[in-house]
């Protein structure tokens, strides 16, 4: 029944430990404690969760088992004292519901003390956190302490959360542990109960088994001393008399304010270390956003606790042990400046728009500081022809235009279905009065981005943007051009605006990428061979047959595709990778993939809520550019030794193998096959030539006349380029000069 978990065979147990250089108590690297195994992916404390966790790049991987005891005294691992949320016990034994007083609280549910180990074997585990995959429910049995030890993890940690409760029911966790330790090595025993640890202190061999006092929320009452945990925290020396270390919620170390931003750290770690107490911290999970300071990258959070220049805790208790292990092996102490050559380019998307409102000066400056190789500007035009950067022509998402200029809203089906406030309906002076707004794809489910900077920064003209990239000496600049045909009907030539700005800016050190979804626009830039032309393919495709790719090659050196054109992941499980990268490479076309976001909701389950796993996978698929709203995360990955696929002697963050995760679920839980996306059709590649630019602004009013809107195709791209010059004055002249260069 239980399939093997071969899919993670790429993960190797290795000796990548860097002992000595850590600010932990003993100078060794911090340990990774897997709470119920890889419980972020599989039902907590199941065989799958434990097996996957042990496939770790750290030598210290420690499996965490929350001890519960059955009626006949068998110990097994489950975190909640009630079993009804994480198993199907309520359906298998409907009559076993009971009410007990647990630490002074009345609790109703299904309890282990009411069922024998024999009967418990009929029960299967299920996911008890609703945002995590449920496809592995109903197939895995409960795991005993001996089963967990049988997986031979480097370390085993048993937590006894309810000693008082079990003793009141005539069950003895201490007796059970003494017995089981005759055959099973337990490296750590923790408990939030003082009396239990004081008793165990005389029972265990401390060279083999460390006793750890677990702190609960500050105001909760410790059941055996009747003191609050915050009172107990004031006397760490007393804790040292019966424990080797402490386990604290992460907020004890890095408090988070009501606004969800980190405050200054407490002195707890150094206080405890001075007393010789080890410090472990709990509450880490990639899919539970902790503080805005981490920009939704869980690696940032782990590093905050182990690599912050002031201290390192001695271990992390997490539901996603692989990410924590990678933080230790790949990212800590890793300040190497330059990415290794030949790796994919990191290309910003509207600047660092995960941290600041997109396309503002602050978003661009952050993208530069973050080390992005290429900084992007999606060019829009104001009514009076000023070129500026904005993620879309509709300003109602990324600014407050909807409130300031509601009366100017319109619906333009050539651009988008929804009603919007479009840049070319406002003058640049009007646009400058707008307040930029940070955008999040997951706002409606409560995942805001950096609210402190919600309206920070200002929009930039294309000229100012280019000036910024020049001053900061960035390696590359990507200019994205859309809606050229429609703008021409409004008397605006966006290609010319871009050409003139580029020629005026004289970026002689930067690589220039001109990106458009329109081959006619790319044709306009053919005359400047140093420009890299990028065709934006918005449609989801599954392959690019030779003929189509060769057609593209006539217009572009690279394509930008969406993630879904490369990674086929219906229902958030990766089923396959398309041939698009291979097909494009066969035609000597580079492939950029967009848009990467850190939020776990944008990641397939296979990536275990870790954006680094996606970066590793896309890199291994051979993409040439990673277009991201969080360039810091991508450059951190690139700087790391764990992304160097050319180096055989280094640990690599493993790319995800297609179909490997969902394949272990029962057939009935697997998503039904979907029709594949179409292949790219050669006939769809080439766009019609751009219409000639409408005569003058004075006629702008007549643009509401449908006849005026209709594009007027001209005979050829070349002719069109020339035709477009008629009717524009200053800009035209600058462009002509540039084209003559
Ligand atoms: C690092 O320290 C741990 C704990 O003391 C030890 O088990 C491990 O062998 C050490 N690794 C190396 C490479 O020295
Ligand atoms: C089950 O989980 C839900 C949601 O997390 C929680 O509200 C409820 O109290 C839990 N019930 C039990 C019996 O654990
Ligand atoms: C977290 O972010 C806030 C807002 O940007 C900042 O004021 C604070 O200093 C940051 N905290 C840490 C510990 O970096
Ligand atoms: C040309 O560039 C300069 C800065 O080098 C800038 O001040 C000026 O506004 C630019 N002119 C145009 C037409 O973009
Ligand atoms: C591939 O295209 C690049 C420009 O994008 C060119 O420099 C190179 O010579 C081409 N290589 C082949 C084999 O066609
Ligand atoms: C890395 O491994 C591959 C295949 O095993 C081998 O062909 C290559 O020579 C190795 N490279 C180095 C630098 O050892
Ligand atoms: C390969 O990786 C090892 C271990 O991370 C590192 O010491 C070595 O410098 C790397 N070699 C190259 C050529 O980057």
3D structure, described in words:
The chain has 741 residues and is of the alpha/beta class. The chain has 2 domains: 20-81 and 126-331, TIM Barrel; 345-679, TIM Barrel, CATH 3.20.20.190. 26% of the residues lie in helices and 15% in strands. It contains 27 helices and 22 strands. The strands form 4 sheets. The protein has a 9-stranded mixed sheet with strand order 12-22-21-18-17-16-15-13-14. The protein has an 8-stranded parallel beta barrel with strand order 1-2-6-7-8-9-10-11, surrounded by 5 helices. The longest helix is centred in the last third of the chain and has 12 residues, at 494-505. It is elongated, with a radius of gyration of 30 Å. The protein starts with 30 loop residues before the first strand and ends with a helix. Mean pLDDT is 90; it is low at 6-15 and 697-741. The chain binds 2-acetamido-2-deoxy-beta-D-glucopyranose (7 copies). One 2-acetamido-2-deoxy-beta-D-glucopyranose binds at residues 261-262, 293, 452. GO terms for molecular function: glycerophosphodiester phosphodiesterase activity. Keywords: Glycerol metabolism, Glycoprotein, Hydrolase, Signal. It is an enzyme of class 3 (hydrolase).
